[in-house]
Design goal:
Elements: E1 4-8, E2 13-20, E3 23-30, H1 35-50, E4 59-65, H2 69-86, E5 90-94, H3 95-107, E6 111-119, E7 122-131, E8 136-146, E9 158-160, H4 163-166, H5 187-199, H6 222-229
Parallel strand pairs: 1-4, 4-5, 6-9
Antiparallel strand pairs: 1-2, 2-3, 6-7, 7-8
């Protein structure tokens, strides 16, 4: 059975997970400023608990974004270092897809819209459908950065993510009945999706791992903020 170590630091919660023999163990900590200091100790704890070395894993998966610029860069850098040292392949997992996977685990939903707070009055979002025959996620709307009101909803998806509560009054009306979850990306779902990709041979060399950025700028000028708010 494929063994996958997963790391997810794209939000204020840093998490790691180890999926082995259909058993998963995980650790998490809050506080984005500490992600670079806390991830490696959590990895060591998981490996020790499982009684294995890093080289015994088949791949390392990570939440590649979108999300916090510092967070996704941290995860990518740590994973590249670990994978290169252990001679392991890596699996980038889109954070919004990981949110959809977690939502499906919790609710059984097969049509999910993930909405992650991107700050500065914007959200990252994407819509996915899980095919019962293919047992795969299909991308209905790709990862997008936009204002909450500009989200495009196809059908009646279950919506998940912290962007729902943050921008409840600005979201399309079609989303309001489905705003029950405020989940963040987590390493458990990243590990599950990472193992599927690994089993299909969809892996990369450590050097080829890259974050997924949807926003080039991480801050707005005063004039840009005023233009957005109309003040």
């Amino acid at each position: 059975m494929t063994t996958v170590l997963a790391i997810e630091t794209s939000s204020e919660v840093a998490s790691v997970a180890l999926l082995r023999n259909d058993q998963i163990i995980t650790r998490e900590v809050s506080g984005i400023q500490t992600h670079s200091q806390t991830v490696l100790p959590m990895v060591r704890t998981l490996l020790a608990e499982a009684g294995i070395a890093l080289r015994d894993c088949d791949a390392i998966a990570f939440g590649c974004g979108p999300g916090s610029f510092t967070g996704v860069r941290t995860a990518c850098g740590i994973v590249q270092g670990l994978a290169y040292g252990a001679g392991l392949p890596v699996v980038p997992v889109v954070t919004l897809l990981a949110m959809a996977q977690a939502c499906r685990n919790a609710t059984g939903a097969a049509d999910v819209l993930a909405v992650l707070d991107a700050r500065m009055g914007e959200v990252y979002w994407a819509q996915y459908q899980f095919g019962p025959a293919s047992r795969e996620w299909q991308e209905i709307s790709p990862p997008t950065l936009s204002r909450p009101a500009d989200i495009v909803v196809h059908g009646n998806p279950v919506a998940t993510g912290n962007g729902l509560a943050q921008y409840a009054d600005l979201l399309p009306l079609a989303l309001h009945p489905f705003a029950g979850q405020a989940s963040l990306p987590h390493a458990v779902a990243v590990a599950e999706l990472g193992r599927i990709a690994c089993d299909r041979g969809q892996v990369l060399a450590a050097i080829d791992a890259q974050p997924l950025y949807l926003r080039n700028k991480v801050a707005l000028t005063t004039a840009e903020r005023q233009a957005r708010t109309g003040t």
